[in-house]
Design goal:
269 residues, mainly alpha, two-stranded antiparallel sheet, 13 helices, 2 strands, 74% helix
Length: 269
Protein backbone atom coordinates (compact mmCIF):
# COMPACT_ATOMS: atom_id res chain seq x y z
CA UNK A 1 0.00 0.00 0.00
CA UNK A 2 2.88 2.36 0.75
CA UNK A 3 4.27 1.78 -2.75
CA UNK A 4 0.87 2.52 -4.23
CA UNK A 5 0.58 5.72 -2.19
CA UNK A 6 4.03 6.88 -3.33
CA UNK A 7 3.00 6.31 -6.94
CA UNK A 8 -0.56 7.64 -6.62
CA UNK A 9 -0.02 10.17 -9.40
CA UNK A 10 1.06 7.40 -11.76
CA UNK A 11 -1.98 5.36 -10.68
CA UNK A 12 -4.26 8.32 -11.40
CA UNK A 13 -2.56 8.88 -14.75
CA UNK A 14 -3.11 5.27 -15.85
CA UNK A 15 -6.73 5.55 -14.70
CA UNK A 16 -7.15 8.51 -17.04
CA UNK A 17 -5.58 6.46 -19.84
CA UNK A 18 -8.13 3.74 -19.10
CA UNK A 19 -10.94 6.28 -19.49
CA UNK A 20 -9.58 7.48 -22.83
CA UNK A 21 -9.05 3.93 -24.08
CA UNK A 22 -12.64 3.07 -23.22
CA UNK A 23 -13.98 5.84 -25.43
CA UNK A 24 -11.72 4.70 -28.25
CA UNK A 25 -13.77 1.47 -28.33
CA UNK A 26 -17.11 3.04 -27.45
CA UNK A 27 -18.86 1.50 -30.47
CA UNK A 28 -17.98 -1.98 -29.19
CA UNK A 29 -19.10 -1.04 -25.69
CA UNK A 30 -22.36 0.32 -27.09
CA UNK A 31 -22.92 -3.05 -28.74
CA UNK A 32 -22.48 -4.77 -25.36
CA UNK A 33 -24.98 -2.34 -23.82
CA UNK A 34 -27.52 -3.17 -26.52
CA UNK A 35 -26.95 -6.88 -25.91
CA UNK A 36 -27.54 -6.33 -22.19
CA UNK A 37 -30.86 -4.57 -22.86
CA UNK A 38 -31.91 -7.33 -25.24
CA UNK A 39 -31.02 -10.01 -22.71
CA UNK A 40 -32.96 -8.26 -19.94
CA UNK A 41 -36.02 -8.05 -22.18
CA UNK A 42 -35.80 -11.67 -23.39
CA UNK A 43 -35.36 -12.98 -19.85
CA UNK A 44 -38.46 -11.06 -18.82
CA UNK A 45 -40.46 -12.58 -21.68
CA UNK A 46 -39.23 -16.12 -21.02
CA UNK A 47 -39.74 -16.06 -17.27
CA UNK A 48 -43.15 -14.43 -17.59
CA UNK A 49 -44.15 -17.35 -19.81
CA UNK A 50 -42.67 -19.86 -17.35
CA UNK A 51 -44.63 -18.39 -14.46
CA UNK A 52 -47.84 -18.26 -16.47
CA UNK A 53 -50.72 -17.89 -14.01
CA UNK A 54 -48.67 -18.98 -11.00
CA UNK A 55 -48.42 -16.12 -8.48
CA UNK A 56 -45.17 -17.41 -7.00
CA UNK A 57 -42.44 -20.00 -7.59
CA UNK A 58 -40.40 -21.01 -4.56
CA UNK A 59 -41.94 -18.07 -2.70
CA UNK A 60 -40.84 -15.46 -5.26
CA UNK A 61 -43.29 -13.49 -7.40
CA UNK A 62 -42.68 -12.79 -11.07
CA UNK A 63 -42.25 -9.07 -10.34
CA UNK A 64 -39.53 -9.78 -7.77
CA UNK A 65 -37.81 -12.24 -10.10
CA UNK A 66 -37.72 -9.71 -12.95
CA UNK A 67 -36.17 -7.15 -10.60
CA UNK A 68 -33.57 -9.75 -9.62
CA UNK A 69 -32.75 -10.64 -13.24
CA UNK A 70 -32.53 -7.00 -14.29
CA UNK A 71 -30.15 -6.23 -11.44
CA UNK A 72 -27.90 -9.24 -12.02
CA UNK A 73 -27.46 -8.49 -15.71
CA UNK A 74 -26.81 -4.79 -15.16
CA UNK A 75 -24.35 -5.73 -12.40
CA UNK A 76 -22.42 -8.06 -14.69
CA UNK A 77 -21.88 -5.20 -17.13
CA UNK A 78 -20.81 -2.88 -14.32
CA UNK A 79 -18.34 -5.38 -12.83
CA UNK A 80 -17.07 -6.72 -16.18
CA UNK A 81 -13.28 -7.05 -16.10
CA UNK A 82 -11.31 -6.01 -19.15
CA UNK A 83 -8.01 -7.05 -17.54
CA UNK A 84 -7.59 -10.29 -19.57
CA UNK A 85 -7.79 -8.42 -22.88
CA UNK A 86 -5.37 -5.78 -21.62
CA UNK A 87 -2.77 -8.32 -20.44
CA UNK A 88 -3.05 -10.32 -23.66
CA UNK A 89 -2.51 -7.23 -25.80
CA UNK A 90 0.42 -5.95 -23.72
CA UNK A 91 2.13 -9.33 -24.05
CA UNK A 92 1.49 -9.78 -27.76
CA UNK A 93 2.73 -6.26 -28.54
CA UNK A 94 5.80 -6.61 -26.32
CA UNK A 95 4.78 -3.59 -24.23
CA UNK A 96 4.86 -5.57 -21.00
CA UNK A 97 8.65 -5.11 -20.92
CA UNK A 98 8.12 -1.37 -20.48
CA UNK A 99 5.31 -1.93 -17.98
CA UNK A 100 7.61 -3.95 -15.73
CA UNK A 101 10.16 -1.13 -15.51
CA UNK A 102 7.66 1.36 -14.14
CA UNK A 103 7.69 2.24 -10.42
CA UNK A 104 4.03 1.28 -10.19
CA UNK A 105 3.77 -2.52 -10.22
CA UNK A 106 2.16 -4.27 -13.16
CA UNK A 107 -0.87 -5.56 -11.18
CA UNK A 108 -1.51 -2.03 -9.88
CA UNK A 109 -1.35 -0.74 -13.46
CA UNK A 110 -4.02 -3.26 -14.43
CA UNK A 111 -6.23 -2.18 -11.53
CA UNK A 112 -5.85 1.49 -12.48
CA UNK A 113 -6.70 0.80 -16.11
CA UNK A 114 -9.73 -1.27 -15.12
CA UNK A 115 -10.91 1.49 -12.77
CA UNK A 116 -10.67 4.00 -15.60
CA UNK A 117 -12.73 1.75 -17.85
CA UNK A 118 -15.35 1.34 -15.13
CA UNK A 119 -15.62 5.09 -14.56
CA UNK A 120 -15.99 5.70 -18.29
CA UNK A 121 -18.44 2.81 -18.62
CA UNK A 122 -20.77 4.41 -16.12
CA UNK A 123 -21.29 7.27 -18.59
CA UNK A 124 -22.97 4.77 -20.92
CA UNK A 125 -24.46 2.47 -18.29
CA UNK A 126 -26.31 5.19 -16.41
CA UNK A 127 -28.14 6.53 -19.51
CA UNK A 128 -28.99 2.94 -20.49
CA UNK A 129 -30.25 2.10 -17.00
CA UNK A 130 -33.74 3.68 -17.38
CA UNK A 131 -34.24 1.71 -20.59
CA UNK A 132 -33.09 -1.48 -18.86
CA UNK A 133 -35.59 -0.82 -16.09
CA UNK A 134 -38.33 -0.21 -18.67
CA UNK A 135 -37.56 -3.43 -20.55
CA UNK A 136 -37.09 -5.38 -17.32
CA UNK A 137 -38.16 -3.92 -14.03
CA UNK A 138 -36.93 -2.46 -10.78
CA UNK A 139 -38.33 -1.51 -7.42
CA UNK A 140 -37.07 -0.05 -4.20
CA UNK A 141 -34.84 -2.35 -2.12
CA UNK A 142 -36.54 -4.58 0.44
CA UNK A 143 -35.60 -1.98 3.09
CA UNK A 144 -33.30 1.05 3.45
CA UNK A 145 -30.78 -1.18 5.24
CA UNK A 146 -31.01 -3.72 2.42
CA UNK A 147 -30.22 -0.92 -0.04
CA UNK A 148 -27.08 0.07 1.85
CA UNK A 149 -25.97 -3.55 2.25
CA UNK A 150 -26.58 -4.06 -1.45
CA UNK A 151 -24.18 -1.24 -2.35
CA UNK A 152 -21.51 -2.69 -0.08
CA UNK A 153 -22.03 -6.17 -1.50
CA UNK A 154 -21.84 -4.79 -5.04
CA UNK A 155 -18.47 -3.22 -4.24
CA UNK A 156 -17.18 -6.60 -3.03
CA UNK A 157 -18.57 -8.23 -6.19
CA UNK A 158 -16.57 -5.75 -8.27
CA UNK A 159 -13.35 -6.73 -6.46
CA UNK A 160 -14.06 -10.45 -6.96
CA UNK A 161 -14.63 -9.99 -10.69
CA UNK A 162 -11.47 -7.87 -10.93
CA UNK A 163 -9.36 -10.55 -9.23
CA UNK A 164 -10.80 -13.33 -11.40
CA UNK A 165 -10.04 -11.24 -14.48
CA UNK A 166 -6.49 -10.63 -13.29
CA UNK A 167 -5.86 -14.34 -12.70
CA UNK A 168 -7.20 -15.22 -16.14
CA UNK A 169 -5.19 -12.42 -17.71
CA UNK A 170 -1.94 -13.57 -16.10
CA UNK A 171 -2.43 -17.03 -17.62
CA UNK A 172 -1.46 -15.32 -20.90
CA UNK A 173 2.14 -15.30 -19.61
CA UNK A 174 2.06 -19.06 -20.31
CA UNK A 175 -0.33 -19.33 -23.25
CA UNK A 176 -0.08 -15.87 -24.93
CA UNK A 177 -3.66 -16.37 -26.19
CA UNK A 178 -6.53 -16.67 -23.69
CA UNK A 179 -9.57 -15.89 -25.85
CA UNK A 180 -10.85 -19.45 -25.58
CA UNK A 181 -10.52 -19.36 -21.80
CA UNK A 182 -12.42 -16.06 -21.70
CA UNK A 183 -15.29 -17.46 -23.78
CA UNK A 184 -15.66 -20.52 -21.56
CA UNK A 185 -15.31 -18.47 -18.39
CA UNK A 186 -17.88 -15.96 -19.64
CA UNK A 187 -20.49 -18.67 -20.15
CA UNK A 188 -19.72 -20.45 -16.87
CA UNK A 189 -19.71 -17.18 -14.95
CA UNK A 190 -23.00 -15.95 -16.37
CA UNK A 191 -24.74 -19.26 -15.68
CA UNK A 192 -23.39 -19.98 -12.20
CA UNK A 193 -23.70 -16.34 -11.11
CA UNK A 194 -27.47 -16.80 -11.28
CA UNK A 195 -27.96 -14.13 -13.93
CA UNK A 196 -29.91 -16.44 -16.26
CA UNK A 197 -31.59 -18.76 -13.77
CA UNK A 198 -31.73 -17.84 -10.06
CA UNK A 199 -29.49 -20.16 -8.05
CA UNK A 200 -32.33 -20.99 -5.67
CA UNK A 201 -34.10 -22.70 -8.61
CA UNK A 202 -31.10 -24.86 -9.56
CA UNK A 203 -31.54 -28.63 -9.11
CA UNK A 204 -29.62 -30.19 -6.21
CA UNK A 205 -26.28 -31.02 -7.86
CA UNK A 206 -26.02 -27.79 -9.86
CA UNK A 207 -26.92 -25.74 -6.81
CA UNK A 208 -24.15 -27.37 -4.78
CA UNK A 209 -21.69 -26.65 -7.60
CA UNK A 210 -22.82 -23.01 -7.75
CA UNK A 211 -22.38 -22.64 -4.00
CA UNK A 212 -18.71 -23.68 -4.11
CA UNK A 213 -17.82 -21.36 -7.01
CA UNK A 214 -17.12 -17.62 -6.65
CA UNK A 215 -19.54 -16.53 -9.37
CA UNK A 216 -22.63 -16.32 -7.15
CA UNK A 217 -20.75 -13.65 -5.17
CA UNK A 218 -20.62 -11.46 -8.30
CA UNK A 219 -24.30 -11.27 -9.18
CA UNK A 220 -26.65 -13.44 -7.12
CA UNK A 221 -25.62 -12.34 -3.63
CA UNK A 222 -25.93 -8.55 -4.15
CA UNK A 223 -29.23 -8.87 -6.04
CA UNK A 224 -30.65 -11.32 -3.50
CA UNK A 225 -29.86 -8.86 -0.72
CA UNK A 226 -31.60 -6.09 -2.68
CA UNK A 227 -34.86 -8.01 -3.13
CA UNK A 228 -34.80 -9.39 0.42
CA UNK A 229 -34.23 -13.00 -0.59
CA UNK A 230 -31.20 -12.89 1.72
CA UNK A 231 -31.85 -11.11 5.02
CA UNK A 232 -30.93 -11.11 8.70
CA UNK A 233 -28.13 -13.49 9.60
CA UNK A 234 -28.04 -14.63 5.98
CA UNK A 235 -26.70 -11.23 4.90
CA UNK A 236 -23.79 -11.51 7.31
CA UNK A 237 -22.99 -14.99 6.01
CA UNK A 238 -23.31 -13.89 2.36
CA UNK A 239 -21.09 -10.83 2.70
CA UNK A 240 -18.68 -12.89 4.76
CA UNK A 241 -18.52 -15.38 1.88
CA UNK A 242 -17.68 -12.55 -0.51
CA UNK A 243 -14.90 -11.47 1.85
CA UNK A 244 -13.50 -15.00 1.97
CA UNK A 245 -13.45 -15.18 -1.82
CA UNK A 246 -11.60 -11.86 -2.01
CA UNK A 247 -8.90 -13.14 0.34
CA UNK A 248 -8.57 -16.46 -1.53
CA UNK A 249 -8.51 -14.87 -4.97
CA UNK A 250 -6.05 -12.19 -3.83
CA UNK A 251 -3.70 -14.89 -2.55
CA UNK A 252 -4.07 -16.87 -5.78
CA UNK A 253 -3.50 -13.78 -7.93
CA UNK A 254 -0.33 -12.95 -5.97
CA UNK A 255 0.95 -16.51 -6.38
CA UNK A 256 0.21 -16.58 -10.13
CA UNK A 257 1.88 -13.18 -10.57
CA UNK A 258 5.06 -14.34 -8.83
CA UNK A 259 5.28 -17.33 -11.15
CA UNK A 260 4.28 -15.32 -14.24
CA UNK A 261 7.26 -13.00 -13.84
CA UNK A 262 9.51 -15.98 -14.56
CA UNK A 263 7.65 -16.77 -17.77
CA UNK A 264 7.92 -13.44 -19.57
CA UNK A 265 8.29 -13.78 -23.33
CA UNK A 266 8.33 -10.51 -25.27
CA UNK A 267 6.92 -10.57 -28.80
CA UNK A 268 6.71 -7.69 -31.21
CA UNK A 269 8.28 -4.36 -30.35
Amino acid sequence: MSRLWRNRRAFAGITVVGIRTFFTYRSLVTFFMVSMLLQVYLLKVVWTAIYGSQPRIDGVSIQTLIVYLTLTNVQLHFTFSDVPRLVRNRLREGQVATDLTRPLGFPAQLVANQLGGTIAGLTLLLPALPLALFLGGLSLPASPVAGLLYMGSLGLAYLIELLIGMIVGLIAFWTLEIWGIQVILGFVSRFFSGALVPIWLFPGVLRKVAEVLPFQAIASIPASIFIGRISGRGVVDAIGLQGIWIVLLLALAAWVWRRAQRRIVVQGG
